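Hmm, what's this shape?
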Amino acid sequence: MLQKKSHVNNQIEMNKTIQKKKPKRITKRNCKQDLLMQSLITFFSNKKNINIILSIIEGKSKISLRLIDWFVTNYCKKNTVRYYINKKGLPKKQIDVHLNYKTQLKSFSKKQFDPFRRDERILFEYDNEKKLTLTTTVGQLNFFRWVIKNNILIYIEKNLKSIEKDMNSVTKKNRIKYLKDKEQKTTKNKKPIRKRRQLCVSATKTISKHVATITVNFN
C-alpha cells in the first residue's frame, strides 16, 4: 500500500517537472514580432540611420516627434502630400504620404507602428563596443524606418515653417473651442439664480382709483 502511494507521489512530481519544462508556444504574432525585430536591427546597424532617430528622440533636432506625427496624420491628409522618391538602382516612384501611412497601420497595427513609445519598451543596443543603448519600442523603430526610407524628414525640413504654422494654428483653434465648450457646459449646469421678491411695491409704479361725487353748477 505504501509502495503504491509512493509511486503515485513520484508520478505527480514527474508531471510537475514536465509542466515546468514545457516549451513556450510560438504564435504567429510572436513569430512576426521576431522577424520584424531582426529586420530593424539590420536597418539601424547603419550609423546614419541610428543617428537620425537619436537626434529626434533626444530633442537635438529641430524636427520634433509631435511635428512628425502631425505631418503624417493631419497635414498630409488635408494637403494631399505627394512626391517622387528616386533611389539608386530603383525605379522612380511616387508616394502619397497619408495613404501610405494608413497602409502601414493596417499591416502592422498601432503597437508595431507608432512614433511614440506607447507599447512595451526595449533597450536597443546600437553600439556593441561602447554598449550604448536606446530606450525605445518595436513600433517606434518600425515607424522611423518607414520615415527614413520614404524621405519624409527631407520633405518636413523643406516645408518646416508651413507645417509648424498649420499645427500651431489648428491646435490653438481646438484649444479655444475646448475652453468655450467647457464654459458653456459649466453655465448650463448652474442653477438659475432666482430674483429676490419685493415685499412692498413702490408707489410710483402703481395706479390708485378713487370714487368721488362732483357737483356742477350752471349760473
In short: Helices lie at 2-20, 28-43, 47-57, 65-79, 97-108, 138-149, 152-158, 160-189. The longest strand covers residues 122-127.
